[in-house]
Specification:
The protein has 8 helices and 9 strands. With about 290 residues, it is an alpha/beta fold. The strands form 3 sheets. A 5-stranded parallel β-sheet has the order 2-1-5-6-9. A two-stranded antiparallel sheet has the order 3-4. Strands 7-8 form a two-stranded antiparallel sheet. The N and C termini lie far apart (about 85 Å).
Amino acid sequence: MKNLRTVITAALVIAVSSLGLGAASAADSAAKHCAGTSGAPAPATRAAAQPVTVWLAGDSTMANPGSARCPVGWGSQFDALFDSDVTVRNQAVGGRSIQTWLYEGNVSSTKGSDGECRLTSTAYSARWQAMLNASTGMRAGDYLFIQFGINDSSSTCPRHVGPARYRQLMTTMVQAALARGAHPVLLTPVAAITCSGGTATKNRGFVNETFAVGSATRAPVVDLQSLSVSLYNSLRFCPHNGDYGSGPVGAFFCNDHTHFEAYGAQRIAGLVAGDVRRQNLPLAGYLR
């Protein structure tokens, strides 16, 4: 009987020991699992943002304002939409076509046999030369936003630019940016306000040409004409009685249905920034 009790006691001790080892093993396994989950190095965070310069090339709808209250180009409102790592250099100039912007003072008032305005010199404008400068101009990681197509539609020189010439000059600008490691972004021309009954309508040219260059060079295109017309319709600018100096239209546009008051410029800049975000361009990471 005594021997039987001894055997039973020994068996119980072994069983309890096994349970303890199993519990310890389970605890160790759980601890290792937790360590593998929370103790592993966290995913690498994005390196400190590198300063980026956003260069703007365009006409009066993009340009910085002068001393008058109106017009205010949307480019003057673009910087405020980014964090402090972005600097916007607005080189847009009122009244310029893509050709007169590139060849300031060297575009004649006569057309050649090809129907294009003749150049008196192929020297680039000082503004474009400065942007091409290796020390002070576009650098790797910068952006170049290009928006023309309004003054280019003129039938007379020096503003006139034909479709093929427009594509050629826009391609030249895109390739110059790419050669410096910068990122070109093309924009269709922003719309003026024109109404067909109760609907705002598109009224700009060179849209197909802009998309063609974007497709050929793989540069992203912001269809600012479509975006702006959609905005005008959402704000119910149409129908309109032709008075551009008062009411919601007057708060948005100068008294010419084309250029912007500060409020209008802010809204257009917001459209551009919104499409940068929608297309998930790397620049979107700098938006506020």
